[in-house]
Amino acid sequence: xxxxxxxxxxxxxxxxxxxxxxxxxxxxxxxxxxxxxxxxxxxxxxxxxxxxxxxxxxxxxxxxxxxxxxxxxxxxxxxxxxxxxxxxxxxx
Length: 92
Description:
Order of helices and strands: EEEEE
Number of helices: 0
Helix content: under 10%
Largest sheet: 3 strands, antiparallel
Strand content: over 45%
Mean pLDDT: 82
Shape: elongated
Low-confidence stretches: none
Structural class: mainly beta
């Protein structure tokens, strides 16, 4: 499966009278893609960044709704700890 490995916009679309929240790409959360190893890749500076989504869903007899959405930016680093281990760092 392919995905862009970079954050892309999210949006609310209306379909069949209902609003739908779409997240197209949250980028990388855990990744071995490093800027220094991606020569020639157009968007390489964005591959170490991602976003964590906080979505509050409320369910009632009337139906289920998304009550709140918050985006939290993150950054992926690869640090040596005896062996290499990718780690994500929230930026909030």
